Structure formats: C-alpha cells, structure tokens
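Quick question about two entries, pasted in order.
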Amino acid sequence: MDATFKVIRKPFIQMFSVHTFVRHEDSTKQVPLVTSMMSRRSKQDYITIFRGILDSLPSPPQVQRVVLDYEEATWKAMRIVMPNIKVQGCAFHFTQAVYRHV
C-alpha cells in the first residue's frame, strides 16, 4: 500500500493505492488493485476503505502479510480489519525517513 500527495487537488489530499505481487514461474510483478482519492486520513477512513475492498471480493483473500508506510492510522485500521495478518513497515519509506533526519 502506498500514498501520494503530489498529484492530488482539492477537495482530496491524497491518493491511496493497494497493490499485490503476482508471481509466474521466475517472474514477479507488482500490480495495483485499488486506488482511492481521500479527503481525510483518519483511522476510520482507512477502515472504510479496507472493509470496502474486502466486501467487494467474492471470497476472503489469502493475505499473509501487508507492507505499509509508517502512518499510524493505516496500521491501526489494518489491525482492526485484518487482525490475523502480519503487518510490516516499508523499507523504502523507512530509509526515506532516516535520510530526512540525517
């Protein structure tokens, strides 16, 4: 999952996207599944998005792990909606945060 702010105009403040990895033989591709334009970034907003995604699927997904940036509201929402999966932070966003403070 990822969010971007640079390509969005009011009334929205971020574009939030959910991706998955698709593997075939020796090839792995990252595929965007859902994109959402958000006007707020609260825990409840993310819960609404995550539940909306799950409700639109024909069967429960076989998700074992999600990788998120370090926005607290996203982590809290994911742990509420899918409490049995492993949540981990994104290495790219972690490195970006470290370099901002060096």
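Here is the second entry:
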Amino acid sequence: MNTITRKQRELQQREKLFLDTARQVIRDNGVSALTMEVIAEITEYSKGTVYKHFTCKEDIMCALCAEGVEYLISLCSQMTEFPGSPREKSIIIALSYLLYAERYPEEFDLLVASKNANIRQKASPERLAVTDEADQKITQLIKDQIHAAIQCGDLTLTPDATVDQLCLGPWAISLGITALYEAQDMISSIEFPPLQDTLYQQLNFLLDGYQWRPLSTEFDYKKTLADAALQLAKNTDDFSISDTLGVQE
C-alpha cells in the first residue's frame, strides 16, 4: 500500500496553497504581478519557504501550466474513445483546446508562454520535464490518429511528408488560433468571427488539403462535433460543453 507521511502531506498541502495563490494573483493582476515575495506575503510564509517548493516564479508558472494541462489531456483522451473515424477523432481532439482555454484561461496563457525560451531557461528541470511529458502525450494522441488513418486507407502520405509534419498542423491551428482569440482585444486589424467556427473551418481546410478522408464535402463533421460534445457532457456532468463548442442542441 502506498502511503505518505504527515510531513509529505503537509508539503503537498502547502504547495497547493502556493499554486492556488499564484493562480489568483495572475487572474486578478496578470503574470507581471506574480513574484515569490507576493506569494510569501499573501500566504504568510517566509520567502525561503516558498523557495523550498519553487526555484523561481517561472517554476510556479510551469507548475500551474502542468496542472491545467491534465484537464486537457483528460479531454483529448476521452475523445479518442469516440466511435468515429480517425479524422473525426482528430477534429474533436483539436477542438478540446476551446474547452481548456475557457475553463483554465490563465493556465492556457501559461501553456503558450511556457514555450518561451526565457521561461524554460529559468524553470527547474523537474517542472520542465512534467510540461514536456504533457506535450508528448497530446502530440502522441494526434499521431495515433494519423497512423490509424494511414492504416485504414483514409490518408496517404506524399513521399516528402512525415507523420510529425502532419501532426504539427492540427496542433498549431488549435493552439495558435485559440491564443490569437485570447488576445483579440489587442488586435484591431482583423474582425474575429466566432472562435468555434474559425477553428472548425481552418481544421477542415487543413485536413482536406491533406486529402484526409472523408473530406468535409463528403461528411457532416458538425454532427460529429455535436455527438462528441454530448458524450463528453455526459461523462463529465458539464452540459455547458455544447455551448463552448458552438453546438446547436
């Protein structure tokens, strides 16, 4: 039986307190307001105690990111169990970023920021390993669908294309478009249609370009999205999922 000591339990509880406090600081005042001093002051622990858990504020940011990504991985994993074609699963996996960004807006911003070299240079190797492992899990889910599509004949790679290259497309669209919409208040050069419509459209443009069948002209992927949203809502008891994904009930 795996048990933890009282001291280990206290350490876990204290670390959770620090992370919850950091999340609230970011939510209220932005990332720039997050410092080790602020965490110590709010929680009434010494700065030295905070440093026993985290090497710097970038370390805290990576920890928050990893915490939120667990929700994203859970969503994506559930979507692989959807009884559909590899392309259907790929689309709903990609659209999981919408749910993640809505429910964990601060962590989503940190997910984007965690790719920044400045943060990666300062965060501890242990925290980076956790965030990197999360990335690997997500990309592997996408790669699995690409391999499945190739195996069943829905997709044929050109001689100069690789699975990794194809994996980058849906991942970049999901992460990149969602990040742009998060910052749309600062972008005045373009009119933003509903995020759900844009992401759905761009994913289909990309996958049709790969000649990944069934093409969007041959199949109703809106129905796929509605069915997946209903299944996920039942699994999680969260019936706001359909609204987030822009599904008409």
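Reply: The chain has a mean pLDDT of 91. The chain has two domains: 1-53, 68-244. Hope that helps.
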